[in-house]
Amino acid sequence: MPIGVFIDGDSEWDLAKEKILKLEVHEQLRDVQDILVMMGSKTRMKILELISNGGSWTLKDLSAKMATKDSNISQQIDKLEAVGLVKRFRQKGESTKLIVPIYERIQIDFRKKE
């Protein structure tokens, strides 16, 4: 994945490294539960691993790499996108959408703040 600012149609999408999703269980329990459910799928975890480790990934690229149908990957990406872990966008002048991670890391804090 190229690092920096991506162009999504006419708008910019900043995907700088070191973006961390920080969740506190005691304040954001529902968000934490949603994220953990997403992490419960081997397919979704593999998608996150692939797109987080570089390169530009399209739906077809992921389907080929994971040896499964486009529709299966698309359903999983829909779920990841719904909880805000990935984004699909079309670079200016391109017809195919790229799939990119929103965060480099996810941090879940189980301790209560004093």
Just name the CATH architecture: Orthogonal Bundle
CATH topology: Arc Repressor Mutant, subunit A
Name the CATH superfamily classification. Winged helix-like DNA-binding domain superfamily/Winged helix DNA-binding domain
Order of helices and strands: EEEHHEHHEEE
Mean pLDDT score:
80
The CATH class assignment is: Mainly Alpha
Report the count of strand segments. 7
Biggest sheet overview? 3 strands, antiparallel
Strand content: 25-35%
Give the low-confidence spans: 1-13
Structural domain count: 1
Spatial strand sequence of the major β-sheet: 4-6-5
Global shape? elongated
Structural class: alpha+beta
Distance between the termini: 39 Å
Radius of gyration: 15 Å
Helix content: 25-40%
Name a few traits of the molecule:
disordered N terminus, 7 strands, 114 residues, Arc Repressor Mutant, subunit A, 4 helices, 38% helix
Question: How would you explain this protein's 3D organization?
Answer:
With 114 residues, the protein is an alpha+beta fold. It has a single domain, classed as Arc Repressor Mutant, subunit A. Helices cover 38% and strands 28% of the residues. The protein has helices spanning 29-39, 42-52, 59-66, 70-82; strands at 4-8, 11-15, 20-24, 57-58, 86-90, 97-101, 105-109. The protein starts with a strand and ends in a 5-residue tail after the last strand.
